[in-house]
Each structure stands twice: as C-alpha cells, then as structure tokens.
Specification:
- Chain A has a domain of 119 residues: 3-Layer(aba) Sandwich (Rossmann fold), CATH 3.40.50.
- In chain A, the strands form two sheets. In chain A, strands 6-7-8-3-9-10 form a six-stranded mixed beta sheet, sandwiched between helices. A four-stranded antiparallel beta sheet of chain A has the order 2-1-4-5, with helices on one face.
- By secondary structure, chain A is an alpha/beta fold.
- Chain B has two domains: 189 residues, no CATH class; 103 residues, 2-Layer Sandwich (Alpha-Beta Plaits), CATH 3.30.70.
- Chain B contains eleven helices and four strands; from the N terminus they run ααβαβαβαβαααααα.
- In chain B, helix 2 runs antiparallel to helix 7 and helix 2 packs across helix 9.
- The chains are: A alpha/beta, B alpha+beta.
- The interface between A and B is medium-sized, with 40 and 26 residues.
C-alpha cells in the first residue's frame, strides 16, 4: 500500500462525500498535499471545509473516490491500522473538543499518553507547550473553568504537542484576540518550518496574508476551486500566494 | 490531574495500579450500583454453588456407602426355620467370592429398625408379627443386576425363603432427587453468571454513552479500541473485585450459618454433605471468575461498540 510517490503526504482523487441520502457536500475533490507546505482552506460557511477536514483527519470515509495518506490507501486500509495513521496527525477542532473532566495539562498530554509515552516524560513537554500558549497558570483548570480563547489555546497545544507530520486546524483563531491569533500562526509557521504540513481552514481572509508562503485552497459549494491545477500538479512556485 | 491536587483514596489506588491511559476517560463512572449488584450476584452464586457441592458430597458419600451393600431378607413364618435359613445364607455368602463380609442382623436390631412403624416388641412373643430375618452383606465391587442374580442362584438351595436386594436400589429415588437439585444449583449458577454479564453489559453501554464525546476524541487522537476497552475493563474490574469480595463474605456467612443448622440435625445423610477444603477453594474462586467474566463482558462490549466507529 505504499505510495509510488513518497513525496505526497495526502492525495485526494475525485473524492465525493454525502451524508445519508442527501446531496453531496463534497464533489469531485482532487488535490495533493506535499510535506512541509502550509495550506489555507477557505470558503464560505457551508462550503464543505469541515467535511473536507474530517476526511483529512480520518473521522470520515468518503462516499466515493480515492484517498492516500502517508503513502497508504486509507479507503482499503484495515480499521485497526487507522489509529497509527491518526497519531501522525494533529487536529484542532472547531469546537475544541477538550475532554471535560481533564485539566488543561492532561488534555495537552492526551496525544502523548495515547501514543504510550511514559508519565515521567510528559511533564516537561506539556509544561513547555502550555507556557508557549500562555497557560502555565491555568494548567490545572478544567475546560469549563477556561474562557473560549483559553480552551482554543489548549486545543492547539494538544494538536501540536506530539509534533505531528500534518496539522489540521479548523478555524483555529476564531476565538482568540488578534495578538494571540498572530502568535498561534507563528507557532504553526514554526512547526511548518520543522517539516510539518499545515492545513488551516479559515474564513478570515486577513489571516491568509499573515503567512506569505502559504498555498490557498478554496471550496465553493463542495467543489474545490483549482483554476490553475496547481493543487493537483503543484508548480515549483505555488500558484496562489497568501499576502 | 497531574500535579498536587487532592485525590480520593480510590483515585490514589487507581493511580498506583494504572498506566497513563487510565486517565483518558473518567474512572469508576460506570460504577453507580454496579459493585452492589455484583456483590449480590456473587453471594447468590456462592450459596447456590455451596448447595450444589454439598448435594454432590451427600450423593457421593451415600453412594459409596451403599454401592457394595446387599440385604438378604428371609421371609418365613416359622421362626426356627427362618433363623436356620438366615444363618445358612450368611455362611454361604461368606464363602462366596467377592463377598467381603456377611452377618445375620440380630433380632433385637431388626425389631429396633421396624419399631417406628410397628411399635415396640412387635415381633416378640408367640402372637408377635413375623418379621423377616436380615442378612447384611458387603461386596467388594458395586452391586449390579448380574451380581444379584448370581447371589440369588447361590442362595436358592440353602435359603429358599431368601430375597436378595441391593441396598443402593432403595435410595435410587433419593439419588435421583439429589441429582435434580444438583442440576438446579448448576442452572442457578449459570443464570446468575448470565444476569451478572447482562448487568455489566448495560452498565458499560451506559458508560460508553455518557463518555461518547471523550471516547471519540481519544479515538481521533489515535487511541486504539484495545486501549479504550482496557480502561473500561479496568474500571469494571475494580467494581467487580470490591463487589466480589463483599459478595463472597456475605455468601460464606450464609453457607456457614446453614451448615451449622444442618449439622445440628444429626442426620447421617446431611452430615455427609459437609464441604471439604476443595469445595471451599472452589467457592473462594467464584468472585475471581466473576471478575474475569465482568471484565471479559466489558471488553467485548466496548470493542463491539467502537467497531461501529471509523
């Protein structure tokens, strides 16, 4: 199942997605993501951004088409192998999805624990990450005790703590102030420079300009706008630049 | 929950005995009345199993005692002739291969045996009721129809009034009733195990529903079905261990109490049903089996439910 082309981290080929018997929320979506790239996924509300991200973070199988991730065909992949693939991803959910009974510290530590890290190896990286997102003082607070912005920062810290190969973020700056939004984008950029592929879904067009080297994917009514074919066959120079 | 906050004793125990993944979903949230349900199930199982084992012991002891026993009744109205045939039958039996022992039961003893039905001194005196003479014989092996036929042929000439019976045949209906009770006890144990599995299944489903969001998050972060199942298994394991210990204690108290009451009856057959050390060991293993059953049920339920997720 290993890809012939190991340079591709994600490949969608004519992917369609429908829920139940409704019309397709995604139609004929084809694109390729390359390691170390920074992508923005934009589109109006209801365009299918969250559905596309669900396919990317393996919460959903498509109704049709083919998806390869990290060189493996995820459509035919046995279910038991999916967790290992998911551990290579970092996800920031739109609604944060923090575990309500766990503290900020334990929420951030969750991916490391799931991956089997020893308890003694958790404290420092988790504390460092919480310090980075400015929540050192709040590490023992449970999600219900945190503001929306603080919860979002915990969710982001949780997504990046395990140094994922690909980070998928759904409106990650929606609940934070502009300064924190810039700071979080800088974190994503720093991760990107370390080799992590970043996909950020946002409807904030101002955000696109903040990351000059980003590529932009635009969804419109479930179809990926790809006027130059650059997503499918990316040129040396990205076809569409933020900023 | 990583640093310094106060933990309950139960949480501390769990922390000591668990690995990191135990923190993924809240522990003991599937408890509620579960430990008490398990305690009651285990207590009832211990009592039912003790009854079954006791009945098995009773049947076994009685069967061993009577297996080689043969009774020869000499039914003859003439007392002198009756006594002569009884003595002749006993002597003949003693010379017969396979017979360990044969002796004429004294007239006093026979009268004492029939006293509850015929009254005292019923067979004495000239106008007494003619009571058969008895010869009690013991064979080396279990008596079957062929053995009885052989003995009857041997005694036909020396004691024509003799009637030969296997002692075990008299208690056949009792053995049959005891066997039925044993099956009943086994069925009760099986039903209680089924009921406990069902209770665990409902509790786990409930807990899965209550923690669905958390489980989905763990699942999307790369948690495996086995990892999540292990957490529920462990949690139900704690509940089952606590409930099982209480249930065992409760069950043993009842068994000991009933044992003492039955011992007080002083009846041979009942005394023979006393539990041996292997029986007590088996009873002590019931909570362990309960814990294993509960954990297996929890594991299968969780894995089956998670199997419906991608």
């Amino acid at each position: 199942m290993t890809s012939a082309n190991d340079g591709e981290i994600v490949q969608f080929d004519n992917v369609g997605l429908r829920y139940g018997t409704d019309r397709e929320v995604l139609s004929d979506v084809s694109f390729t993501l390359y390691p170390g790239s920074f992508y923005f996924l934009t589109g109006a509300s209801g365009a299918g951004k969250t559905s596309l991200l669900k396919l990317l973070y393996l919460a959903q199988r498509p109704s049709r088409g083919a998806i390869r991730m990290f060189g493996s065909d995820v459509i035919t992949m046995p279910r038991a192998r999916l967790p290992l693939l998911r551990r290579r991803l970092g996800v920031v959910f739109q609604d944060f999805r923090l575990v309500p009974h766990l503290s900020a510290f334990d929420n951030v530590a969750l991916p490391l624990r799931v991956a089997g890290a020893a308890e003694r190896d958790l404290a420092k990286p988790v504390a460092d990450m919480l310090e980075w997102v400015g929540l050192t003082e709040r590490m023992h607070a449970q999600p219900a005790q945190l503001s929306g912005g603080e919860q979002q920062r915990v969710a982001i810290a949780r997504a990046v703590i395990a140094r994922p190969e690909m980070l998928v973020a759904d409106e990650p700056t929606g609940n934070v102030d502009p300064d924190m939004a810039i700071k979080l984008l800088r974190l994503f950029e720093a991760l990107n420079r370390l080799g992590t592929t970043v996909v950020v879904a946002t409807h904030d067009v101002h955000l696109l300009k903040k990351v000059p080297d980003s590529l932009i994917m635009r969804l419109d009514k479930g179809r990926l706008s790809d006027p130059t074919g650059a997503l499918r066959y990316p040129p040396r120079r990205p076809f569409m630049r933020g900023g | 929950m990583a640093f310094g906050e106060s933990l309950s004793l139960a949480d501390r125990w769990r922390r000591l005995t668990s690995r990191g993944d135990a923190e993924l979903v809240p522990q003991a949230r599937l408890s509620g009345p579960m430990p008490w349900v398990i305690a009651i199930m285990v207590a009832l199982t211990v009592i039912a199993a003790a009854a079954g084992l006791s009945l098995a012991n009773t049947a076994s002891a009685a069967s061993d005692e009577l297996a080689g026993g043969v009774t020869v009744q000499v039914i003859e109205a003439n007392p002198a002739e009756r006594d002569r045939q009884a003595v002749a039958a006993a002597e003949t039996l003693r010379r017969t291969p396979g017979v360990i022992e044969a002796h004429v039961v004294s007239q006093d003893e026979v009268e004492r045996l029939v006293e509850p039905w015929l009254g005292a001194g019923a067979g004495s005196g000239d106008d007494g009721i003619p009571i058969p003479a008895l010869v009690d014989a013991r064979m080396r092996d279990r008596v079957d129809g062929e053995t009885l036929g052989g003995l009857r042929r041997i005694l036909r000439d020396v004691a024509p009034a003799a009637r030969v019976d296997a002692q075990s045949s008299w208690l056949e209906p009792v053995f049959s009733a005891i066997q039925s009770l044993q099956w009943l006890a086994a069925a009760l144990v099986a039903l209680l195990a089924l009921a406990m599995s069902s209770a665990v299944l409902l509790a786990v489903r409930n807990a899965l529903g209550a923690n669905r969001d958390t489980i989905e998050i763990v699942h999307l972060l790369g948690g495996t079905d086995t990892q999540i199942a292990r957490i529920f298994q462990r949690s139900i394991g704690y509940d089952a261990s606590g409930g099982g210990a209480v249930g065992l204690a409760l069950g043993l108290v009842v068994v000991l109490f009933l044992g003492r009451r039955f011992t007080g009856l002083g009846a041979g057959l009942v005394d023979a049903g006393a539990l041996g050390w292997i029986d007590w060991l088996l009873l002590a293993m019931i909570p362990l089996a309960g814990v294993a059953l509960a954990m297996l049920t929890a594991r299968l339920t969780v894995i089956r439910t998670l199997g419906r997720m991608l």
